[in-house]
Amino acid sequence: MTTPLPGVDIGDAAKAVRSLLDVVLDARDVTFAEWVALRTLGTSVERVSQPALRDGVVLALDLDAAEATALLCSLEARGLLCYDGFEQVGLTVDGAVLFDEIQAGVAAITAEVYGGIDAGELATTRRVLASVAARATELRLRL
Questions:
Q1: Which InterPro entries match (predicted)?
Q2: Alpha-carbon distances, residue 83 vs 48, 52, 86, 90, 111 (angstroms)
Q3: How many CB atoms neighbour CB 80 within 10 A?
Q4: pLDDT tens digits for range 95-131
Q5: Considering only CA atoms, which of 81, 4, 85 is closest in space to residue 37?
């Protein structure tokens, strides 16, 4: 039997953790793509320009600009985000409540999944994964 490549382990862990996130999102009728946009707004100190939010969603989800714009329009139609007169985007009260509920669910699951794992090991894991992500990004640009 051969030892699996490290990417397989990373992929398995990512899928397992993502499936937990999907449970939290499904309970609130939110897709992963919607969560990416909501999280961007919910963690931003200030309102975000529509082009910056759209471009961030494009990069994060590998969508085209039209798909990202449609996603933002659907969140606006659901009353979860709104624009001001300067095309700056922010969460509505309902959007902020939904963000907080999902964030609390994610925090609870995160605590359970990572609870009992040595803090030093988690810090090492974060550093290694950040390095892997940076290297993969560099390699992708060269391919």
A1: WH-like_DNA-bd_sf, WH_DNA-bd_sf
A2: 9, 13, 8, 7, 34
A3: 23
A4: 999 999 999 999 999 999 999 999 999 999 999 999 9
A5: 81
Each residue's pLDDT tens digit, 33-75: 999 999 999 999 889 999 999 999 999 999 999 999 999 999 9
Cβ(95)–Cβ(81) below 8 Å: yes
Give the largest Cα separation in the chain, rounded. 62
Nearest of 49, 50, 66, 68 to residue 58 by alpha carbon: 68
CATH number for the domain spanning 54: value is 1.10.10.10
Residues in the chain: 143
Q: Which helix (H) or strand (E) holds 89?
A: strand 88-91
Residue 92 CA: distances (Å) to CA of 7, 23, 101, 138:
39, 24, 14, 37
Measure the CA–CA gap between 94 and 49, rounded to whole angstroms: 20
Asked whether residue 103 is domain-assigned, the answer is yes
* Domain range enclosing 68: 18-116
State the total domains in the chain. Answer: 1
